[in-house]
Amino acid sequence: MHYKKRAKLLYVPSNFNVVTWMMGRGYSLRKINSHQDKFRHFVHSVATQAVLFENEKGWSYISSEILDELYYNHRKWVIDELISGGVVEKNNSYKAGERCIGYRITPAYQTKLLGETIFSEVFAANLERKQKLASKITAKGILVRNLRLMRIHHDAAHEYLEIKFSNSQKLLKVLHDLFGNSETLYQRYNEYLAKSGENESFYSLANEEKFGRAMVKLPDVNGKKDVYLYLSNYLNSKFNKDYLAVESIRYKEFRASVSDVNNRLDTNITNLSKVLRGCLHTTQKDQQCLFNVDIKNSQPFLLCIILIEQFKGRYMPEDVKEYIQLTSSGKLYDSIMAHFRVPASQRNVFKKKLFATVFYCKAKYTAQTKEGKYFIKMFPSVARVISELKKPLPGMTKEEAANAYKQLPIRMQRIESHMVLKVIAPKLEKAGIFFQTVHDSFICYRKDALLVKDIVVASFQEEHSLTPSVDVEELVEPIADAKTEYEINKYLSYNFNI
After folding, report:
1. Are residues 36 and 107 in the same domain?
2. Is residue 145 part of a domain?
3. Are 340 and 371 in contact (CB under 8 A)?
4. For 441-454, b where at least 16 C-beta lie within 10 A, e where not — what string?
5. What is the pLDDT of residues 433-464, one digit of tens each?
6. Dist CA 237 CA 226 (whole Å)
7. Does 276 share its domain with 364?
C-alpha cells in the first residue's frame, strides 16, 4: 500500500497572503508561481526563529549560504522586496565570520502564525533535502530514541490555545477601551489575572523588568508609545511559540540538542508549555497514561548545592540552614507567598516573579523590588552569595560584564543538567523505564512514576547529601474557559470599581 506523503508546511503571519501581496506589487501570475515559495520560506524562517530562540529583540540570524542554495540567485531580490514591502526589517549586526545580518517581522505582521502548504513540489523536495543534511537531532541516546515515540493530541491542544489566546486579546482590548493606550494596560492586565485566578485561561505578560526594558526601547509614535500594539504582539508571540511546539510534535519534526551554555537537553518537549504536556501520549497504545515527576522548588533547591560548597569547612549561618531546609521540603515559595498573602491560585505567577526578582536578574534590581527586599531580609547570607556570584569576573569584556548576572542561573542549570542527564537518566535506563526529561522533571508512565521518584531522591542523597521534595502528578489535558467581552467587562466592573 502506498501512502500519500504529507505536504510540507511553512508558517507565516496570518495576515500575510503571499499571492495577494505579490499581486499588489504588480507581479505576473507566472512570476508569482515561480517565486512565491521563496518569499513564504524567508518569512517563515524569520518568524519561527524569533519564536523558537526567544530573542528578546525579535531578531533572527539566517545564513546567506543556506538561502543561496534554496533561492539560487534570487536571495537579495527576495529580501529587498520583503523589506521595501514592509513585511521584514533588518539590522546592521553583520560581522564577518561571527554573525549574520539580523531580520525580524515588522510590527504590522506580528500576528498569529498559520501553516501554509508549499506550492512547488520541487522547492519542497529541495527544502527537505537541505533539512536532512542539517539534522536537528544532534544529541544521542535513550532520550532521543524515546523522543521519537512521543505524540500529541493536537486537536485538543489547538482548541485550548485558541480559547486562551482569544481570551487574552479580548481582555487586552477591553482594558484598552477603558484605560486607553498607556502602561496602565500592563498593570491592569496583571491585576485581572491576580484577582480572577484564571491563569490557565489567559496568557501571562512579561515580567516587570523585561516590560520596563521594552518600554525604554519602544519608539514614540506621534509623541506616545503604542503599548497596546506591543502587548498585543507579545501575546501573539506567546501563542506562536505554543502553536509551533504542538505542530512540531504533531508532524514528528523532532529536535534534540545539548546547549553549549548550560548543558541542558533541549527538545520539542522542553519547548512545550507545561500545561500542554497533558496532551502528550506515546505510540505504545497500552501505556497511554503519562505522569510528571517534578522536583519541588527545583532551581532554588539547586542553589543549596552551591551554598554547601561556599560554606564548606566554615560556619554556616542560620539563615542558610533555614533556606536549605525550606527548599529541600519544597516550602520556599509557600513561605514567601504567605508573607505577601498571595493565594495558592497565583503560585505559578509568583514563582516566575520570584525568579525574575531574585535569581535571574541583576543584584541591584533585587534590592529595588518588594520580593527581593524581603528575600534579603529573610536570607541575608544567601542573598550575599547570590550577589557575589553575579559579579563580573576579571578579564571579562564590557559586554560580558554587563551580562555577568546570568552566571548564577547558568551554573545552577549546569548542576541540574549533570544530575538529570549524567546521574539520574542512566539509572532510569538501566531500570528499563520509559522517560523523557523536561530540564528538571521527568515524564514517564503511571506504572513507573513512584520508582522514578525514588531514584531521583536517592541520587541527590548519594551525590550531595540533600533530600529534595518530589511531586508526582498525572498529566491531564488542559481546559480553558472561553470568555466574552461582556463577561470580562462585568468582572472588571464588580472588582475594579469601574
Report:
1. yes
2. yes
3. yes
4. bbbbbeebbeebbe
5. 999 999 999 999 999 999 999 999 999 999 99
6. 17
7. no
Enclosing domain of residue 345: 298-390
* Residue 258 sits in the same domain as residue 114: no
- 319 and 304 in a single domain? The answer is yes
**396 lies in a domain?**
no
Cα 93 to Cα 102: distance, rounded to the nearest angstrom: 6
Query: What are the Cα distances from residue 492, in Å, to 196, 298, 498?
Result: 10, 36, 7
Looking up cell 542512566, which residue turns up? 426
Give the separation between CA 210 and CA 332, rounded to whole angstroms.
24
C-alpha cell at 369: 523590588
Which letter, b or e, does each residue of 164-179 get, where b requires 16 or more Cβ atoms within 10 Å of its Cβ?
A: bbbbbbbbbebbbeeb
| Same-domain status, 258 and 171 | yes
Residue 400 maps to a domain? no
Q: How many residues does the chain have?
A: 498
Q: Are residues 172 and 144 in the same domain?
A: yes
- Closest to 330 measured CA to CA, from 446, 478, 440: 440
* 242-259 confidence digits (pLDDT tens): 999 999 999 999 999 999
Residue 210: CB partners within 8 Å, gap ≥ 6? 56, 356
Q: How far is CA 23 from CA 9, 43, 73, 160, in A?
A: 22, 17, 22, 36
Residue 410 inside a domain? The answer is: yes
Local confidence band at 35 (pLDDT 50, 70, 90 cut-offs): very high
Map residue 82 onto helix, strand or coil: helix
C-alpha angle with apex 398: 394 to 403, nearest 5 degrees? 85
